Amino acid sequence: MTESSMNKPTDEPGDPQPLSLKKRVIRGSVWTLGGHVLSQVIRLGSNLIVSRLLFPEAFGLMALVYTFLSCLEMLSDIGIGPSVIQSKRGDDPKFLNTAWVLSIGRGFVLWIVSCIIALPVSRFYNEPILLYMLPVAGLGTLMLSFQSTKLMTTNRALELSRMTIMDLVGQVAGVSAMVVAAWFAHVTKAPQDLAVWALLVGTLIGAAVRVFMSHYFLKGVNNRFEWDPSAFQEVQRFGRWIFVSTLLTFFALQGNNLIIPRLLGVGFLGVFSSASNLANTASGVLGMVGTRVLYPSYAELARDRPERLYPVLKRTRLVLNGMNWGICLLFIVFGKALIRFMYDARYADAGWMLQILALGSLVTMIGSTYTNVLLAQGQTFMMSALMAVQVFVQFSCMFVGYYLGGEQGVLIGIAATGWALYPFQAICFAKLKIWQPEVDLPAIALASGIAMLVVFRLV
């Protein structure tokens, strides 16, 4: 996907030459894509099993918990990981130990926050069980804050095989615990308020396994408590807008799960989350590749050969958007049949939801494929500004859609976000001289034609 770089000379004449950037990107992409595909298979299989053991409302409640848990996990980094990948001090033990201490401190703060917000959240959604589930979910975030900075340095070097294995092992452990707990709740006919805890058990087990493996399975500097003021200042400078961008990203990605249960109920959210998880398959895979492979490679080019960013970005975006379109078109054509095959009749409405959400992903991904270049160039303020616009546009489209069309209107509003947002993205990318209209505009025009045909048949 990217250009090969010149091999750097080694310090000792007998040392092996390091792999070129191109080879590292290809190898990292293979591991990341393969691992993510396998991860999705595991996730889908467990979802099919657990959906037959529990009730839709359980998935709605857990979607709410995961929404807040995702918020806590996103805020626990405050740009620490990206700053290690971008910084010239990314391999300095003092810098890494300071980053680790910062991560732990943030984890404790966010767990306390999860305890504080539990009562108002449970009252707002009229779900008393959230009073207890949110603090326990916050413990998972606290555990993850103890992950070793070996994760960051391994990602920085694009040595992703061990990271992929660690992720899969953690997922298998968490999923296994969840399935066993759900089965036990089913056979014992546990009440709903007790059975829903089966979904949370897997999260805690998976987090514990990931923390353990990050310290003892990955290679790199072993962390210890150490504080370097200069390292803290560098992380703070880089991460001040990352924090804002991350907060806004949470609302952009998870805001639907906050609004839908208030407008349409927790049961509707349970069905919607099933469709949303499938619709986000492409964006999840490509997002993983972007975070683990493309961002480190773009950052390396930005440091060493910035003039190569534009042509590399263009070729990469063509590949990413092509992959996204292939998956989304599959969901658009076979969405209803796929849902009927995978789920029972209680989830039938997820079929048309999947079709509409996949339509939106055709355009949403076009703008998203620029994001990692912004981060590699240190344009964190621009990222935050664009994310703020996205949150405003997305929420506006949802409420307008609900007012005009109820349930279907909300889904159409979510899908329309990409079209409404793109003009703002194009203006910003043009100012940074990375806008690629020759790639974007034909794709948006074709997506618009497909959308009119599909929505006309559904509505």
Characterization of the model:
The chain is mostly helical and 459 residues long. The chain folds into 2 domains: 19-227, no CATH class; 240-246 and 257-459, no CATH class. It is built from 17 helices and no strands. Helix 2 (56-75) crosses helix 11 (266-279). The radius of gyration is 22 Å and the shape is globular. The model is unreliable at 1-17 (pLDDT under 50).
What's the layout of helices and strands?
Blueprint: H1 21-53, H2 56-75, H3 80-86, H4 93-124, H5 130-144, H6 150-156, H7 161-187, H8 192-195, H9 197-216, H10 229-264, H11 266-279, H12 281-304, H13 309-342, H14 350-368, H15 371-376, H16 380-431, H17 437-458
CA-atom Rg in angstroms:
22 Å
> Major β-sheet, in short?
none
Shape: globular
Give me the count of strands: 0
| Number of individual domains | 2
N-to-C CA distance:
40 Å
Question: What are the main properties of this structure?
Answer:
mainly alpha; 2 domains; disordered N terminus
Give a brief outline of the structure:
This protein is mainly α and 459 residues long. It has helices spanning 21-53, 56-75, 80-86, 93-124, 130-144, 150-156, 161-187, 192-195, 197-216, 229-264, 266-279, 281-304, 309-342, 350-368, 371-376, 380-431, 437-458.
